[in-house]
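Contributing: when you submit paired examples, paste them exactly as shown. First protein:
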Amino acid sequence: MRIALCDDEAQENERLESMIRRYAFDKNYDIECEAFTDGRALLERDRFDLYFLDFQMDGMDGIEVAQALKEKYSNAVTVCFLTNYETAAAESINRQIHADGFLKKPLDPALLGEKLDRFYGMSFFNRFELRQGKRFRTVYAQDILYAEASGKQILLHMIDRVETYNYLIGELEKMLPRTLFYRIQRSYLINLQHVESYDAKSVTLKNGETLPLKDRNFQSAYRNFIFLINR
């Protein structure tokens, strides 16, 4: 897993990187960290699996960097803010831009470990090999907006394209992380990360598409998802 650290104080980056490396060693995880003291430099790099962003920075602050990342990658990024603020202030920040977590400074190694465990446990970084004709392609779970049944195949609606795969939608459902994906009706399996809004009859995704909703348990499932990513 590739993690980007962005804090305008180099010592803070070093401290966080040391904690993450200790965690990775204890868990025997393959984690690569890269530190940045400027948000603009971070935005010039390819996508990382996880971003730890300091909320207050000279130049671009954490909110501005997160907004730019989400625009660049169509919301398919995982962001955890580092902040001195208490929970109420963090919730206020979250109303400006959705985050996948907060950590209060000074950082507690145990709480950091819990966050990293949760990100792994929720399979945010799962990669899948899916059959496409006679070939297999690697697909990232967080790049999937939704899957649509099309006869004996599925149309996988990605952030920037639509691809066809040789699976029934029920087969794909068993392969994807249940925490992230939900079957809103017979023909549609959506990524809860990309939900913008919903009502009794439809779900609107962050790219503006609206899909029909025919599952009475969706509200409960979506609230559970929001609880898990914000705890």
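Second protein:
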Amino acid sequence: MIKSRYCAVESLKIMGSASKEVMGPNINVLLWNVFKCKKKDWERDFVSLISDKDLILLQEAILNSPFDILFNRSQQHQWIMASSFKNVRTNIETGVKTGSTVAASEHYFSVSSHGEPITKTKKMLLATEYIMPVDRQSVIEKTLMVVNFHIINFVSFDKFKAHLDQVLHIFERHNGPIIFAGDFNTWNTKRLSYFKELARSFSLEEVELLRRPKFSHLLQHLDHIYCRGLEVVKVKVHTDIHSSDHYPISLSLRV
């Protein structure tokens, strides 16, 4: 019997310090699957990309590595890391990580019920909420919900659907603006169709992205951004950056 090199951790860690009190009305976002920070020049590109960002959503982020200093000592962003598994040889944890210039008022994470083949690793969902400026026409304090999601891959449609459906109860309890983004592994028509159906049911609109499909992604786009209650001002896919197997995506929004 071959022993897996991975084990489940399913934990959450908060690092760094936020620099602002409220989120908005202008919000700059970065979405990036960072490929476990394996590639050359990742740190240089990362530091450059996040300098003007209010929200950073990372997938395949890592913990217990030399890069931890970037997050632990941050005075600009609070970082919340939801780990789903750990490499027992290196002690490095992998999961999703959300950075924000505003401290989260709420946070919640959920791991997939099923594991991926061979490695048996699971994938993670991280939901965070942020206080927004008070509407002049209302005394009610609003929050922005941000869902950072890396959906399980290489499994049957039913297992994919079970993981995606974990967002249902999160969206059902939130009436305000939403950013729903991540690596959704939507590499076939059935997966993508169900994903779009779920998004429409919660009035989420997909952000249009101009990009080139990668052969390694089966020529399909896996990274997506959906929004509700927010105006898209500008979008850029950084096709000039190659320090991951996914291109970083920058997004400017307005409440």
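If you have annotations for the second protein, write them as plain sentences, like these:
The CA atoms of residues 47 and 70 lie 9 Å apart.
Confidence is low (pLDDT under 50) at residues 215-219.
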